[in-house]
Specification:
Layout: H1 4-21, H2 30-37, H3 41-54, H4 57-72, H5 74-80, H6 92-101, H7 104-122, H8 131-148, H9 152-157, H10 161-176, H11 180-204
């Protein structure tokens, strides 16, 4: 029904933007910030996967709710929606550029949600997670969104930028109406896939000149 990478971007954009907000400042290049803070993208991805396995459902859901709220704000949606295009670049540099364009309210909420996720994940054991069940939950959300919203599938799979963003917002609205455990499981799945795409982008990116 929908493009896997597009769906992975729906929620993973939240953690990647917020992660880039923490070490990278507007006056620095991403390469300089990575060097200053002492980690590289591959380490970030590996640590991120472990944090996702440990983060309790409420911490995952907090990040999901910030992402949904941002897409409901027309000004923030204009910043975030280009990341949902199938051919969009999803690198640390790109996410840093997007982060610098977010308004102070949502950028602060993103950073706060990720900081909370980091803290509680480091204090928690690995959480139960059924990937197959999460994927089924995502598919079910897509089916419900398609039944309730004319143009959902066409918008998600088509080339119209604004229609795709609207369909993704409908999908998040459906997930928002589901029980916490189901919503968090889908969000955890999408976050993990998003980190996987970041790992691929990091391996294929050309070396920095800085």
């Amino acid at each position: 029904m929908f493009h896997p990478m597009t769906l992975a971007a729906v929620v993973s954009v939240a953690t990647l933007i917020a992660t880039s907000l923490m070490p990278v400042r507007a006056q620095q290049s991403p390469a300089a910030a990575v060097e200053q803070w002492g980690f590289d993208p591959s380490a970030l991805v590996a640590d991120g996967h472990e944090l996702l396995l440990r983060a309790p459902d409420p911490a995952i859901d907090q990040l999901f709710q910030v992402a949904r709220s941002s897409l409901s704000d027309p000004r923030e949606a204009e910043v975030l929606c280009p990341l949902f295009d199938p051919a969009a670049e999803r690198s640390l540099a790109t996410f840093n550029q997007v982060a610098n364009r977010l308004g102070p309210e949502h950028s602060g909420r993103f950073a706060g949600a990720v900081a909370n996720l980091f803290v509680v994940a480091m204090q928690s054991p690995r959480q139960p997670f059924d990937e197959a069940s999460a994927r089924q939950g995502l598919k079910s959300a897509g089916v419900r969104a398609a039944m309730l919203n004319d143009g959902f599938v066409a918008g998600l799979n088509g080339s119209d930028h604004h229609a795709r963003c609207r369909s993704i917002r409908w999908l998040l609205d459906d997930l928002h109406a589901q029980p916490l455990a189901q919503r968090a499981a889908v969000a955890r799945l999408l976050l993990a896939e998003g980190l996987g795409h970041l790992a691929i982008a990091s391996r294929t990116a050309p070396p920095s000149d800085g």
